[in-house]
Hints:
With 471 residues, the chain is of the alpha/beta class. The chain has helices spanning 38-57, 60-76, 78-89, 98-113, 151-162, 177-186, 204-209, 223-233, 258-270, 290-302, 322-336, 372-375, 391-399, 414-422, 456-461; strands at 6-8, 11-13, 18-22, 29-34, 120-125, 128-136, 139-143, 166-170, 195-197, 216-220, 239-243, 248-252, 280-286, 340-343, 362-365, 382-388, 403-404, 406-410, 428-431, 446-447, 450-451, 464-470.
Amino acid sequence: MDPFRLIIDGKKVPAKQCFEVLNPATEKVAGLAPLATKDDLENAVRAARVAQKAWAKETERKRQTACRRIAERIEAHSEELAQLLTAEQGKPLNGLGSRWEIGGAVAWTQYTASLSMPPKILQDNNEGRVELFRKPIGVVGSILPWNFPVLIAIWHIIPAVLAGNAVVCKPSPYTPLTTLRLVELMNEVLPRGVVNCVTGDDDLGPMMSGHPDIGKIVFTGSCATGKKIYASASETMKRLTLELGGNDAGIVLPDVDPKQIAEGLFWGAFINTGQTCAALKRLYVHEDVYEDVCDELVKFARKMPMGAGTEDSAMLGPVQNLRQFEIVRDLVADARGKGRVLLGGDVPAPSSRKQGYFFPLTLIADLDNGDRLVDEEQFGPALPIIRFSDIDEVIEKANDNPNGLGGSVWSRDVTEARRVAARMECGSVWINKHGMIQPNAPFGGVKQSGVGVEFGQEGLEEYTDIQVVFS
C-alpha cells in the first residue's frame, strides 16, 4: 500500500513517517497518511506566503474562473473521491452519504465562485470621496473535522482562495486521505503554493493557531478545541471563524401530523449517523402528540438499514472512530436508567463488540434537562425525546444550554412557528425541517457554538480585512 503524500508548494512531498487510517466499518487499514513535522508545516506556510502575494494581485474574475475549474475537477473525479471518502469516513456511498457530499462540494464551489466583493462608495460629495475595500488577510489556516472532510474543506478553502488568500489546511487524522486528494486536484488548477495540505496528529493544530505568519484560522470542530484555538490565536491577534459544537433543540407544537413530520425529524437527527454539528440533538414534543410522534419516529427508524458504506442498501454507516463510539455508548448507558428506551440502546461491551463501530439507532423517551443525553452533545445515532406542555417553559429549556448553533420548530401554523423561532437562542432556525444549510445563507452559532459565519456574501467577507480610503 503506497502512502499518500503531503501537498506543499504544488508538489507531492513524502513524509519520513506515516500513520494508518482505519475504515470504521471494518477496522482495517484504508490507507497510509503522511505524518507531517514542524518543518513540513513551516515549508507549507512559507510557500503559502510567497504564493499569496502574487495570487492577491490577480483579478477577481480570474480567481472566480479558477474556482469554477476546481468544481469541474471535483466533478470529474467524483466517484473516485466518494469511494475514498466512504473507505475512511464510513458513510454510505448512497443516500445522504459520500456521493451526496461530493455533489454538495461541487455545488458549493460553483455558487461561491459566483460571489463578488466590489469596492463600496460610502461617500462621494463636495466633502470628499470615501471608499471601502476588502483586502485578503494573507495566509489562512484551515483545521478540519472528520465528519464531512470534503464538504467542510470546500467551505474553508474556496472562499479563502476567492478572496485572494493562500491556504494551509490540516485534515483530521481520522479522515485525511480524501482531503489530500482534493487538494491535489485543486493544485491542477491553482498556482503552486496557493493551497497546501499537511496531515498528522493533533500537535499540528496548536502550531498553526500560534503561527505568526498565519493571519486567520478557520476551524470546525468541538467547543473544547475551539476554546484552545481562541486562546492560542490571541497571541498574534488572528482573525477567527470557529464553527463549534451544537446541541440543537427541536420543538414540536401540538398541531402537527406526527406521520407527516416523522421523516423530517429522523433525517434532521440522524443524517451522517448523527455525526453533524447542526443535527437535531434534543427533541421536545408537546404532550398532545407526544406518544404519536414517538410511535411514528420508531416506525420510520426501523426501516433505515445500517451497514458498511459500500453496501447498496445502507442508508446509515458506523460511528467514525472508537473514541466517539465510546462517548455515545456512555451517554446512552446513562440515559437507559432514566428514560424509556423506544429503540436500540443495547450496546455490547467493547470486549464482545463485533467488527466495525456500528452503534444501533437509539430513541429514548421521557428524559428531561439535567439528563446527560439531553445536556451534552452526543454526536451519534441517539436521540432524547422530552415531553412538554407549556410553550414558555419549553423555550426556556431549549435555550438552557451553552451551545446555540441551530434549532427547529415543527407546526402547521408557520406564523406561530416563526414566533417561537424568534425566541430561540441559536444562529439558525428551521421550520418543519432541520439542518438544511445552503450556500447563499450565512451559517454560524451564538453563545459557545462559535465565532463568525460561513457561506454567502457574509461568509466570504470573513476572509478579508477592511480598508477605507478617504480622498
